[in-house]
Amino acid sequence: VVNGLDRQPIENIAAKIAELGFNCVRLPFALDTIFKNPVVRAERLSANPDMVGMTAMEVFDKTVQALTDAEIIILPNNHMSTAMWCCSYDDGEGLWYTDEYPEEDFIEGWIQITKRYMDNPWVAGMDLRNELRPSHDVPAAWGNGKENDWSIVAEKVGNAILEINPEVLIIVGGILSNGNLIGVLTHPINLNLPERLVYSGHIYPFSPVISDLPYPYYKMVMHNMQTFVADAGFNYSAPYWMGEFGSGGSNDEKWQNIIKFLYE
Predict the structure, then answer these.
(1) How far apart are CA 118 and CA 167, in angstroms?
(2) Which helix (H) or strand (E) covers residue 47, if one does?
(3) pLDDT tens per residue, range 17-60
(4) In this structure, what DSSP letter does residue 207 have?
């Protein structure tokens, strides 16, 4: 469940987010949240006594309701399969399928989330999977036509979601921890409702290689690897959304590169 429910009532948290000027929350969930749905420990909910005794999905429901009551857009994000801290290259969670949860469960999880919130228009987009990366020495690929081809399953699950709710956005992140969308050039995502597609990328000051570049090269590589998808007039063109960015360290120059890139 979300952090902070042992510190403040959920309504206060939602009101503070809106007061600070944010209009959107990317709300993570694990497949464990759906398929195991345990009762949440009471100490995690001490500032929200009305939630004590609720399951993980019931707490998720309350969180969605509080945020959308505050007129904050929700973008559910399948962050992990197993409920634990993200992310590392040896956690076995780098792909949308794991030893415990096959691809079919990943798709079924999204079907359940879509049906659960389809009557809430503030749940406006589905961020399919967080930071694809190698798992058990198998990398996430884009366009190779094999089991680890993210473009195939992203298209499949995106269309399954749109069959249920044609109004939501389908947010597809890149491989290499959401840092690489280059596969879109040759294998764009083809949704039945193409206007619902959004590509997403992440960047941090500790992102390897790119964060060490002087700004002119940094800007060029960011465009060539991520934001080119928003260039108009191509068969792959679609909006781009930076789903994560942050300071993540003490290097102010690298953080300023991110801020400058966002402004430009």
Answers:
(1) 9
(2) none
(3) 999 999 999 999 999 999 999 999 999 999 999 999 999 999 99
(4) S
Tell whether pTM > 0.90: yes
- Inter-residue contact 127 to 243 (CB < 8 Å): yes
Phi (first) and psi of residue 206, to 5 degrees: -95, 5
| Helix ranges (DSSP H) in the chain | 10-19, 31-35, 56-69, 103-117, 150-164, 175-178, 215-225, 252-263
Write out residues in the chain with pLDDT < 50, as ranges.
none
Question: Residue type for 213, please?
Answer: L
By the 10 Å C-beta count (0-12 exposed, 13-18 middle, 19+ buried), 245 is classed as: middle
134: left (phi over 0), alpha (psi -120 to 50) or beta: beta
Q: Which bin fits 187, alpha (ψ -120 to 50), beta or left (φ > 0)?
A: beta
Q: Which residues of 138-165 are buried (b: 16+ CB within 10 A; e: fewer)?
A: ebbbbbeeeebbbbbbbbebbbebbeeb
